[in-house]
Amino acid sequence: MGKYQQDAKLLLEYVGGKENIVAVSHCVTRMRFVLNDPAKADVAKIETLKSAKGTFTQAGQFQVIIGNTVQEFYNDFTAVSGLEGVSKEAVKSAAKQNQTTAQRIMSALAEIFAPLIPAIITGGLILGFRNCIDSLYLFENGTKTLCDISQFWAGIDSFLWLIGEAVFHMLPVGICWSVTKKMGTTQILGIVLGLTLVSGQLLNAYSVATTAAADIPYWDFGFFKVNMIGYQAQVIPAILAAFTLVYLEKFFRKICPAVVSMIFVPFCSLLLSVIAAHFVLGPIGWKIGSVISSVVYAGISGSFRVVFGAIFGFVYAPLVITGLHHMSNAIDMQLIADFGGTMLWPMIALSNIAQGSAVLGVIYLQRKNAPAQEVNIPACISCYLGVTEPAIFGVNLKLNFPFLCGMIGSAVAGAFCVATSTTANAIGVGGLPGILSIQPQYMLTFAISMVIAIVIPFVLTVIMGKKKQVS
């Protein structure tokens, strides 16, 4: 008999029985269910199980927090239920039946950017390091950088740009690949499409603003001309082009006879999508991206930027609950492309810290409650490292007031962060490690913002918890 067999039997009953389960899988800490009727899941009973640390529903999936022993629990659950587990991708696919159109769009954006995050984090750290050695004037009475006084570090600085350029300038290649991977079409075609958006034959996107209209190269087709402009670091043009390629490939695969599909499907799909990308979608996507980033940048840098920062800091955690926070990835990348950095991502990292600090307050309040600490401590650690769901759903929302305390702390930290123009090189490094993605000249102000995001939620949570006699 497995260690969790009894709890597994009860969980099966409480989620509505075998017949209510469409698919089941698990991640690092959670059981993930897609249910025919989510209303049949008895949350109150599930949370009485000793093995269950909390529940929440997100992206059409009913998730039960188990903790680090989730693999053992999952094995016992599949044994007692007779169900075969499926991959997380299969669960995500099945979960679409429970998602609204907006949730599906947000989920798609999240799945596009998720495979790119490791590269973006790496690129951000490299840019941050390069800024430290080539932009901080720390030597010879503040007149020279490390690169100015050392040929070795100047060489390192130049060499590291090889990676930085590959990550950020060539981002459309990664986006086009990721879209085709997610949609199950030919990935190499996505890569080739992305390469056509950043080809060296085109005028670099970063040079467009400083190039006179008469000097912009173009393709001359006799009766019309098309500007030869690259889309380095552009997000929306790449997404539009990639989805065009995906649907063209699916269309041609349906209508082409199998005997010639190997020739005509890739040829027609790629050719038409490249034409659409450079003739129509690229210019439109560029304009849309520029408008979005300009509006957000105006909010962050304008006269009411402190208000903007406070509002964004306050509402970001609730956006996580709805899944709408995934939209911020695309906006962040567009801000980086247009303005050389993003002031949005630092506030996201601060929201992570604030929610984790609210959990830290709960840890203090429940310091004598050993069963509660089994949930609280791992949730706090993961939140400080940028993964907020266990903290939000497993602790803060269950007690309600810590969630609000975290939002208030995030709002104050966000207002200070924006007031000081704190800017990140890249996205992806969340929570306390988020300081590694901050541009060097703003690391001190971000550190102060982190202190605010730690102290205010912790103090408010302890004060309110004592009034409510939480222990």
Please give the order of strands in the largest beta sheet: 1-2-4-3
Percent helix range: 55-70%
Mean pLDDT: 86
Percent strand equals 5-15%
Low-confidence stretches: none
For the largest beta-sheet, the strand count, sense and barrel status come to: 4 strands, antiparallel
Please identify the oligomeric state. Answer: single chain
- Derived structural class: mainly alpha
Distance between the termini: 35 Å
Number of strands: 6
Given the C-alpha coordinates, what overall shape results? globular
Count of helical stretches: 19
Q: Which sequence of SSEs, written as H and E, runs from N to C?
A: HEEHEEHHHHHHHHEEHHHHHHHHH
Radius of gyration (Å): 25 Å
Number of domains: 3
Task: Explain what the structure shows.
The two termini are 35 Å apart. A 4-stranded antiparallel beta sheet has the order 1-2-4-3, sandwiched between helices. A two-stranded antiparallel sheet has the order 5-6. It is built from 19 helices and 6 strands. The chain is globular. The relative contact order is 0.09. With 471 residues, the chain is mostly helical. The protein has 3 domains: 5-96, Gyrase A, domain 2, CATH 3.30.1360.60; 115-286, no CATH class; 299-467.
